[in-house]
């Protein structure tokens, strides 16, 4: 004011005429003092404490290495640009832009959150520079590539190279370099990753599939040894052609549940893959003529052939018997379990002459029928190197002792003999075989149809007496030998001097008794599998499957 009166006093003087009475003013002052007395004191603000910057990693000690684990997530210390498409506020002409004053301790209504300020790139430079000066670098940038390759190799061994390596290659440059290591791409199995098998695709999807396989073959498959393609209904010829051109070291090719395999695929194999020695086309629809042509030209380099029995697949067996694959070591012919009674005409003598180096011969759920050729001279050398013979079937087999003798009459190195379902084979016929060191004998009866075998058998003790020192696995499920025969057989197994090699024993559905069982279990210290289900001559509570030595020892305590 001009007369020097303070502003506060001038307001009081101006309002003096309208002031209330003295009594009302006193009561007002009392109410104000009462309110001030009941008011809560304000909380004092805590002093800010400066904290050191948080480390970006944690060091933990493993069994044989130190693990550096990152503590930051993908949203920490990342500069985010302004969101696109944000509408700018229009400023009217002639009016200046007014910035509202910042309000402190503003309480917002429920449902509305405060917007966090964007972190700009310039604000991060001191923090990043501090971490680099102190040595706090990202663990992924300093981890040696060799360590990552060894880690990836463990996963690839368990889950396969695809799609694991394709996914980790997108993490960062370091992981991409590790995933591209040729040592990880030795064995590749490609399933149908895009859509369910058998469904049609759009032309763009088909092109994408072809381009993806072509890129993988050209950039990752240079050291592939084993390649498998599963459940492909289209583009199989293209995949086989690309793989054969990009994999000079390819040794094994497996096409499982694939259709549309034509002669073009086998022609591409014959021109590029000089190291190929194994072909598996089981459960796949192939052009038999193309594979036969490939065997006639390049069958001399093959060591393993596996295929499924079909209407025209007997031509493959005929080509093999003619001597197209003299170095063949494994031959497996199978069919589906629900296919029923399946016969395959086969000339054993011609096959023995055509494949003298055969070591493994399997006919799974396929019943061989004897067949004689016109130009057969009658002389044969047998299978002198045969180590495994499998004639297992879920249907009724008409194989006799004479048929079995024709196959293994000159196979002294036989180690595994699988005759499951061969009900016409006798114990006397098995005991006359030339093999003296048989390790695995599977002779159980498993029928998928309502087939019952009521003929009683005898002579099982002849087998256990002959091979008691070498038998490691014995399967006699549902074989109707007498109680006395079973006691003699178990006694021969228990009389083995030294450590008993028996590891697995299947007596399901047999007439084994408690004394015989107690005798063989007490002497078989390495036994870890015992099947006693449906054994009617055992007490209740014991007729079940036992796994592990602990459960078998508990059973022995109950028997004693």
UniProtKB/TrEMBL annotation:
Q: Which residues form the F-box domain?
A: 142-189
Q: Where is the signal peptide?
A: none
Please list the residue ranges that the record marks as compositionally biased, kind Basic residues: 28-51
Q: Sorted alphabetically, which keywords does the UniProt record give?
A: Ubl conjugation pathway
Q: Which GO terms describe its cellular component?
A: SCF ubiquitin ligase complex
Indicate yes or no for the key word Transport.
no
**CDD domains tied to this protein:** F-box_FBXL6 (cd22119)
InterPro entries reported in the protein's UniProt record:
F-box-like_dom_sf, F-box_dom, FBXL6_F-box, Leu-rich_rpt, Leu-rich_rpt_Cys-con_subtyp, LRR_dom_sf
Statement: the UniProt record of this protein carries the keyword Secreted: no
Q: In which residue ranges is the amino acid composition biased (Low complexity)? A: 16-27
SUPFAM superfamilies tied to this protein: F-box domain (SSF81383), RNI-like (SSF52047)
State the residue spans of region: Disordered. 1-52
Q: Which PANTHER family match?
A: F-BOX AND LEUCINE-RICH REPEAT PROTEIN 6, F-BOX DOMAIN CONTAINING PROTEIN, EXPRESSED
UniProt name for this protein? F-box and leucine rich repeat protein 6
Organism of provenance? Salmo trutta (Brown trout)
């Amino acid at each position: 004011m001009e007369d020097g009166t303070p502003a506060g006093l001038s307001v009081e003087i101006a309002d003096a005429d309208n002031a209330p009475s003295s009594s009302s003013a006193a009561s007002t002052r009392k109410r104000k003092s009462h309110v001030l007395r009941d008011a809560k004191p304000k909380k004092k603000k805590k002093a800010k404490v400066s904290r050191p910057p948080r480390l970006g990693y944690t060091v933990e000690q493993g069994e044989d290495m130190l693990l550096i684990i990152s503590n930051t997530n993908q949203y920490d210390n990342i500069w985010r640009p302004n969101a696109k498409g944000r509408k700018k506020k229009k400023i009217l002409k002639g009016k200046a832009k007014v910035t509202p004053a910042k309000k402190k301790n503003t309480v917002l209504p429920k449902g509305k959150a405060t917007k966090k300020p964007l972190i700009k790139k310039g604000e991060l430079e001191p923090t990043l520079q501090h971490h680099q000066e102190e040595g706090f670098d990202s663990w992924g940038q300093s981890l040696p590539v060799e360590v990552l390759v060894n880690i990836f190799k463990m996963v690839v061994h368990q889950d396969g190279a695809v799609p694991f390596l394709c996914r980790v290659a997108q993490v960062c440059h370091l992981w991409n370099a590790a995933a591209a290591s040729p040592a990880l791409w030795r064995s590749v199995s490609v399933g149908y990753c895009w859509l369910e098998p058998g469904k049609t695709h759009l032309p763009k999807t088909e092109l994408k599939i072809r381009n993806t396989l072509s890129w993988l073959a050209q950039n990752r498959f240079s050291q592939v040894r084993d390649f498998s393609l599963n459940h492909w209904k289209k583009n199989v010829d293209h995949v086989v052609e690309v793989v054969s051109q990009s994999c000079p070291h390819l040794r094994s090719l497996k096409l499982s549940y694939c259709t549309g395999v034509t002669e073009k695929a086998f022609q591409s194999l014959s021109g590029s893959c000089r190291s190929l020695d194994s072909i598996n086309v089981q459960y796949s629809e192939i052009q038999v003529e193309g594979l036969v042509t490939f065997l006639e030209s390049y069958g001399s380099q093959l060591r393993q052939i596996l295929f499924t029995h079909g209407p025209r697949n007997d031509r493959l067996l005929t080509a093999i018997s003619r001597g197209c694959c003299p170095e063949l070591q494994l031959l497996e012919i199978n069919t589906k379990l629900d296919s029923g009674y399946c016969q395959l005409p086969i000339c054993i003598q011609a096959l023995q002459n055509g494949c003298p180096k055969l070591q493994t011969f399997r006919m799974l759920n396929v019943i061989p029928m004897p067949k004689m050729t016109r130009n057969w001279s009658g002389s044969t050398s047998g299978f002198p190197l045969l180590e495994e013979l499998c004639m297992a079937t879920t249907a009724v087999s008409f194989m006799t002792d004479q048929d079995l003798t024709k196959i293994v009459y000159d196979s002294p190195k036989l180690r595994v003999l699988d005759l499951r379902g061969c009900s016409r084979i006798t114990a006397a016929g098995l005991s006359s075989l030339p093999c003296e060191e048989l390790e695995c004998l599977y002779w159980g009866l498993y029928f998928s149809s309502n087939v019952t075998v009521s003929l009683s058998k005898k002579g099982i003790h002849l087998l256990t007496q002959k091979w008691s020192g070498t038998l490691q696995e014995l399967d006699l499920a549902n074989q109707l030998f007498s109680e006395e025969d079973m006691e003699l057989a178990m006694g021969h197994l228990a009389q083995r001097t030294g450590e008993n090699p028996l590891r697995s024993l299947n007596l399901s559905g047999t007439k084994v008794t408690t004394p015989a069982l107690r005798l063989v279990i007490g002497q078989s210290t390495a036994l870890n599998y015992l099947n006693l289900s449906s054994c009617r001559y055992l007490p209740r509570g014991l007729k079940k499957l036992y796994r592990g030595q602990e459960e078998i020892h508990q059973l022995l305590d109950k028997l004693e």
